[in-house]
Design brief:
The protein contains 7 helices and no strands. It is globular and about 50 Å long. By secondary structure, it is an all-alpha fold. It comes from Synechococcus sp. SB0676_bin_10. This is Rod shape-determining protein MreD. Keywords: Membrane, Transmembrane, Transmembrane helix.
Length: about 200
Amino acid sequence: MKPAAAWPQQALVGVGGATALVALLLSFLSPGWLRLAGASPNWLVLWLLPWARSQGPIAGLAGACILGIALETMTIGVATPLYGLALLAWFWGRQTRPGKIIRPSPTALAIQATLGSLLVDVTVMMQLRLLADPRSGHVQPGAGILSSDVAAAGWFGREITNAGFHGAIAAALVTGFLAPLVGTLLLRLWCQLDRTRHG
């Protein structure tokens, strides 16, 4: 049996893992009333922001890698949000102080989540753009979800990029709108668990 001091750490990891699983599932099953112009919020960014801000860069990078790889196993294509999530985890995690969780203002959470969502979407679009065939302007088959159908329909990389920017901006706005609520609730939960861990 584990010592009593080890239980809160296990509870923190368990609750963090459970909330990460919910964020991953919401990435695919987001309610329709939370969408803006067909784009749902970036639930992974909404989870990663408070996790990295409360647990630091190492735990943030671990969470970003686990979520990014889990999302990769559920989608088709070569483009991955892992690079953007890892950058955000490192940046947000470095804003923590050892032994103290700083709760940012709701406005700061909204701005950071909006910019974070844009960064993740732009890194995915850059990967898709780099995979485009420069001779024909078409996206190579296998470069993304249903990209072979898109290329067969005659869509050019420029059109996909323009549609991607509109979707990225819509997703960033919805993510920023939800960040104060979701981020504050998760930060409060992890602060309570961290407080019980340190006595």
